[in-house]
């Protein structure tokens, strides 16, 4: 997808997503043979259930039908959430991942797997799990030191004192597909 098309789609769709109380996280157009898929990833501080995804999917579908943003030919619109192992790239992503286990790849090399305790404008307060019976330790990590960060899936977490993000709804990737669209017929 050209940068121009990506920017155009973002400018067209972002206000609609925002009007539904969601953030537009990602847009991608993929071609498989003659089929094209427009994938739109949305999220919010409170998450996005299937009803909210369906609402935004209908709004986006109607807007795309009014325009030529996708050009001629069929395509499938998929609207979903980031899923369990989401990448953290924006400040709001880190805030939403508070109390979650995250794998950080550092600019200086190496990596840290730790739970986010707190997020401020400069960085993160982390709890690094202890190994071989040792107690967990805390660590401060500046945003500038982070190369990549990805939430880790936890199947059986022993510590559930802070269950804000332990609900399985936050670990799923809800996706709504709409019917194929064809312009010009």
Note down, in words, how this protein is organized:
This protein is an alpha+beta fold and 185 residues long. Strands 1, 2, 3, 9 and 10 form a five-stranded mixed sheet that branches. It has a five-stranded antiparallel sheet with strand order 7-6-5-4-8. Strand 1 and strand 2 form a beta hairpin. Helix 1 crosses helix 2. It is elongated, with a radius of gyration of 19 Å. The C terminus is likely disordered.
How does the SSE layout of this entry go?
Elements lengths: L2 H17 L3 E10 L2 E9 L6 H17 L6 E8 L10 H6 L4 E6 L4 E9 L3 E6 L8 E6 L3 E6 L23 E3 L3 E3 L2
Parallel strand pairs: 2-3
Antiparallel strand pairs: 1-2, 3-9, 3-10, 4-5, 4-8, 5-6, 6-7
Helix pairs in contact: 1-2
Core attributes:
185 residues, alpha+beta, 5-stranded antiparallel β-sheet, 3 helices, 22% helix
Number of helices: 3
The biggest beta sheet reads: 5 strands, mixed
Termini separation comes to: 24 Å
Which range does the strand content fall in? 35-45%
Give a quick rundown of the structure.
By secondary structure, the chain is of the alpha+beta class.
């Amino acid at each position: 997808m050209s940068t121009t098309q990506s920017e155009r789609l973002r400018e067209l769709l972002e206000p609609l997503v925002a009007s539904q109380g969601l953030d537009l996280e990602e847009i991608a157009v993929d071609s498989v043979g003659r089929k094209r898929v427009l994938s739109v990833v949305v999220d919010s501080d409170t998450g996005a259930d299937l009803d909210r995804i369906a609402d935004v999917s209908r709004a986006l579908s109607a807007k795309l039908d009014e325009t030529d943003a996708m050009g001629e030919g069929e395509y499938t619109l998929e609207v979903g959430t980031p899923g369990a192992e989401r990448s953290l790239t924006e400040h709001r992503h880190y805030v939403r991942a508070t109390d979650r286990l995250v794998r950080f790849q550092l600019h200086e090399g190496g990596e840290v797997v730790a739970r986010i305790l707190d997020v401020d404008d400069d960085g993160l307060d982390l709890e690094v799990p202890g190994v071989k019976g040792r107690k967990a330790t805390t660590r401060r990590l500046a945003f500038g030191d982070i190369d990549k960060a990805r939430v880790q899936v936890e199947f059986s977490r022993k510590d559930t004192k802070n269950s804000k993000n332990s609900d399985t709804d936050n670990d799923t990737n809800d996706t709504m597909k709409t019917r194929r669209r064809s312009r010009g017929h």
